[in-house]
Amino acid sequence: MHPLRKQRLQLVILLVAAAALVVGLVVYMLRENGNFFYTPAQIVSGEAPKSTFLRAGGMVVDGSVVRSDDSLWVQFKITDGVEMLTIEHTGILPDLFAEGEAAIASGKVDENVVLQATQILAKHDEKYTPPEVADAMNEAYKQKEAAKSGSYK
Amino acid sequence: MIAEYGHVALIIALCLSVAQAIVPMAGSFAGYRTWMRLGHSLALGQLVFVAISFACLTAAFLQDDFSLQYVANNSNTLLPTQFKISAVWGAHEGSLLLWALILAVWSAAVALFSGHLPLVLSSRVLSILGAISVGFGLFILLTSNPFARILPFSPTEGGDLNPLLQDFGLIVHPPMLYMGYVGFSVAFAFAVAALIGGQFDSAWARWARPWINSAWVFLTIGITLGSWWAYYELGWGGWWFWDPVENASLMPWLVGTALVHSISVTEKRGAFRSWTLLLAILAFSLSLLGTFLVRSGVLTSVHAFANDPERGIFILAFLGLVVGSSLLLFALRGPVVQRQQGDAEVVSYSGLSREMMLMLNNVLLVSAMAMILIGTLYPLIADVLELGKISVGPPYFNFFFVPMTLGLMVAMGFAVFSRWKKTDAQMLRQKGMVPFLISLGAALILPLFLAETISWESMSWEGVSWKAYSITAAITLGASFWVVTMSIEDLWQKLDRGSSKRGSSKGDSSKRESRLKNLTKLPGSYWGMQVAHIGIAVCALGVGLSSVYDVQKDVRMVPGDRVEVAGYEFTFDSLDFVQGPNFGASRGQISAYKNDRLVAVLYPEKRKYEARNQVMTEAALDAGLTRDLYVSLGEPLKGDAWAIRLHVKPFVRCIWLGGLMIGLGGLLSVMDKRYRRRRQSGAKLSAQSAASEAVTQ
């Protein structure tokens, strides 16, 4: 082979190998660090995996927030209108966290189907609802309606 | 009535921009000089009308005209005046109007300062800027009109500005960021004009370079301010969250940085031509993508607003049109530009040359951008493909971005030293030895020292300092010292250039004199490079050290309590209630002591904004170059107790100090005499040619 061509071929092979490596790494890292979003119904029904990092969102149930007297431990429930999911967290809650408002928790679901959250996100603007939560609520509402109309038949 | 004037002014501006898009372009093809010149006046006219429109909206805010939907949603009679003004761009509609205004400012600047450019080029650049204005004008008028009225039942009181935005940060951060984003439209327009004309050479690069550099400076400062604002205003001490919208601003910055470097090769050596054009197109496309991500509300983000999907579709269509047509043009005309290169001498360079180093810089920067793009868009793609709702967390971004940045810094040290065409490897090895040894020493020894001074008792390791030795800190310190020492070594060599030839016989004083002389002779762009590169090192130092040595404690405290964090004793002295102009606040007094000596008294607040009934944490901080003390009130617990977050953040200031240095570096290189001199001589030339034209006529 012509030495120049050989050199080019080597370069191309090197580039392809590097690109393959990078693509592989990207896919791997996306899989490792992509956190799936689940609705409370999906988690309670056992559809969501246990002890993997995930996010759950819904409306904070009125009167469900329980605080500890001597630490920053807090427990509350969120709902998508179908099921309620208990969430436990130790730390400071965001400013706009409130009962009856949307919240997203990220963490792992333990044996008792309680989400042990490492981070709680609330909306940052009173008019804003995270799209995931809005979708989940709509979906749950639709299912309920469908179930209702089904029962008439 | 004022709002209607504003609305009409905006419509007139749109009409002018339609003319600006069509007339000069048509003129440039038909060869009508008057048509081409019209672009300049149209750009100025457009600026006047957009400015009137913007002033009208500002007036509506100052007059509390709540019959305007936008004002009613984002202002309040109790809102302090400076925030009434910044509230103009505090939400969707107004921020787009600010975008339009800034675009008009850039276009007018091009119209005013392009006297030395060939008329065909400047008219085409203005025409393309006009076309972009048409897109944004239509977008504002059709989907997000800030002048829409609520009639006949307009509210008597407004809903108030989002409390998070009632801050100095909102006054400066968005305008700076937009100056950067929109500034890349000038680079884009230059690139498209070059592709249309099929002419692209060193002269073109010299004309476009100050524009590209200044847009990049604004973007750099905008991002730095945004990060600083998030740090003190969001209340939890984070300064970068890998939030989709932050990523959206970082991506054009990375490509812009690549462009700033690549165009220097095009200017000095005539190489990397089509690559430079592609980067210019990419930088602006990514700015538009950023707008789409922020404005469409498709992603969950701190910056997202409640939005209707119509807007998202409009921007997506506009984005598709801009990216699609410019890439098509690039595909068709790129080869023409490349072929032109054949006319000139063949540009050659060896494996160890400045060209090669800058290519490495570009490859790393663009790859970093690609990783961020994938991570940012993956959730969107997964959602469309129904793979589930996913969010990509910071570990993904850190995994790719951190090593790439370190690679860039290592290369940066060599690159400063490298020469065009070919660098003497022997020289590089010789001169690089001292900086290498200093950096290695800093990496090995300094982390021990840092671990000692920043007390680790709170980590319950019983004072074993080798355990606290951080490899991350070592790597950060090594890389930062490498960049700085190599820069200094290069500067030193440049200063010694004249004196070493004359020999040492002349004595120290003349040597010093010649060094001083060399010092004043160095061009602005050289200083710019040095300051910006050292800024990168300072910023990296801040990022690395603050994330390694950061200590944070969430504690429950009642007044009188004392808590120790990283060598500082925090006492919760008291809690008061204070009344602000449009909020009431619980204000804590927390004193910080070090070795029983009072260091700072901090007043963190928990505010309740009355109009929105929204609670907001106002953190208190004691800033210092080597450490920040950062205290925020969480929430009231039972009795007098409060949840309180205490932070000690070593070197966190360096992040923004570095950012500002990078911006300053860019500014120095924009102000390089080289461009001004050319501009003057260019103006003279064009004046001469105009005169000769007049004579021939």
Automatic annotation (TrEMBL), chain A:
<feature type="binding site" description="covalent">
    <location>
        <position position="124"/>
    </location>
    <ligand>
        <name>heme</name>
    </ligand>
</feature>
<keyword id="KW-0201">Cytochrome c-type biogenesis</keyword>
<keyword id="KW-0408">Iron</keyword>
<feature type="binding site" description="axial binding residue">
    <location>
        <position position="128"/>
    </location>
    <ligand>
        <name>heme</name>
    </ligand>
</feature>
<dbReference type="GO" id="GO:0017003">
    <property type="term" value="P:protein-heme linkage"/>
</dbReference>
<dbReference type="GO" id="GO:0005886">
    <property type="term" value="C:plasma membrane"/>
</dbReference>
<comment type="similarity">
    <text>Belongs to the CcmE/CycJ family.</text>
</comment>
<keyword id="KW-0735">Signal-anchor</keyword>
<keyword id="KW-0349">Heme</keyword>
<feature type="topological domain" description="Extracellular">
    <location>
        <begin position="30"/>
        <end position="153"/>
    </location>
</feature>
<protein>
    <recommendedName>
        <fullName>Cytochrome c-type biogenesis protein CcmE</fullName>
    </recommendedName>
</protein>
<dbReference type="GO" id="GO:0020037">
    <property type="term" value="F:heme binding"/>
</dbReference>
<dbReference type="InterPro" id="IPR004329">
    <property type="entry name" value="CcmE"/>
</dbReference>
<keyword id="KW-1133">Transmembrane helix</keyword>
<dbReference type="Pfam" id="PF03100">
    <property type="entry name" value="CcmE"/>
</dbReference>
<keyword id="KW-0472">Membrane</keyword>
<dbReference type="InterPro" id="IPR012340">
    <property type="entry name" value="NA-bd_OB-fold"/>
</dbReference>
<dbReference type="InterPro" id="IPR036127">
    <property type="entry name" value="CcmE-like_sf"/>
</dbReference>
<keyword id="KW-0479">Metal-binding</keyword>
<keyword id="KW-0812">Transmembrane</keyword>
<feature type="topological domain" description="Cytoplasmic">
    <location>
        <begin position="1"/>
        <end position="8"/>
    </location>
</feature>
<dbReference type="GO" id="GO:0017004">
    <property type="term" value="P:cytochrome complex assembly"/>
</dbReference>
<comment type="function">
    <text>Heme chaperone required for the biogenesis of c-type cytochromes. Transiently binds heme delivered by CcmC and transfers the heme to apo-cytochromes in a process facilitated by CcmF and CcmH.</text>
</comment>
<keyword id="KW-1003">Cell membrane</keyword>
<feature type="transmembrane region" description="Helical">
    <location>
        <begin position="12"/>
        <end position="30"/>
    </location>
</feature>
<dbReference type="GO" id="GO:0046872">
    <property type="term" value="F:metal ion binding"/>
</dbReference>
